[in-house]
Amino acid sequence: MTIAKEGLNLILAFLAFTIGFGLLRIWPLTTLLGILTLFLLFFFRDPKRNPPSDPSIIVSPADGKVIEIKEEDGIVRVTVFMSLWDVHVNRVPYGGEVVSVKYRPGKFMPAYKPETHSENEQNIVTIRSDIGEYRFRQIAGILARRVVCHLKPGQKVATGERCGVVKFGSRAEVELPSDKVEVIVTPGDRVRAGCTVIAKVRRGS
């Protein structure tokens, strides 16, 4: 098990304060900071993931629970809610070439609410693939105050490749052309980033 690099500075800071207050023998603060340091180590865990080898599959971008599947205007959207206890490292749903990465400021409403799709702070990644262009969104929640994406326009990406992290509770969405894919998950399903197949490319697409 490795730790996501995005959390290292925060973990080291809490560890330093824990040690400092421990040396001063201020035990209540030492205990509290020690617990918070352990939580951060747990939160920023970055387990190794091995995506399925089938080139026709689309994987979940995040660990968590599928809370919505919505089809509209030729697009089917799969939404995954990440709780505080889920791994928050995000992964590319389907391989291709990054067209754009757009940051959009916004609100910090609870990530399970439908309106967060359009109103919360988020990164919108557009990827060109053999099924056409699709979008992947990293959306902040009430506790998530930073969405981090390492992808750049023009970059080639593979299915299941690590692409960023959302700090604390949040949601991730994949928007796919509905005539090109068949969604195989349902609301309530638990999924893992880079491993769980959420959709398959339709034959002949």
Folded structure, characterized:
The structure is a single chain. The protein is about 20% helix and about 40% strand. By secondary structure, it is α+β, with helices and mostly antiparallel strands. It folds into 2 domains: about 1-45; about 55-200, Glucose Permease (Domain IIA) (Distorted Sandwich), CATH 2.70.70. A hairpin with a 2-residue loop joins strand 4 and strand 5 (about 75-80). Helix 1 runs antiparallel to helix 2.
Give a quick set of tags describing it.
single chain, about 200 residues, alpha+beta, Glucose Permease (Domain IIA), eight-stranded antiparallel β-sheet, three-stranded antiparallel β-sheet, 3 helices, 16 strands, elongated
Helix amount: 10-25%
Examine the coordinates and then state which fold CATH places here, giving the name of the CATH topology of the largest domain.
Glucose Permease (Domain IIA)
Q: Tally the beta strands.
A: 16
Portion of residues in beta strands equals: 35-45%
Shape: elongated
Count of the separate structural domains: 2
Biggest sheet: strand arrangement: 11-7-8-9-13-5-4-15
Computed CA radius of gyration, to the nearest angstrom: 18 Å
Structural class: alpha+beta
Task: Quickly give the CATH architecture of the largest domain.
Answer: Distorted Sandwich
- What is the element string, with H for helices and E for strands? EHHEEEEEEHEEEEEEEEE
> Which stretches of 5+ consecutive residues score pLDDT under 50?
none
CATH class of the largest domain: Mainly Beta
Distance between the termini: 38 Å
Number of helices: 3
Average pLDDT number:
92
The main pleated sheet reads as: 8 strands, antiparallel
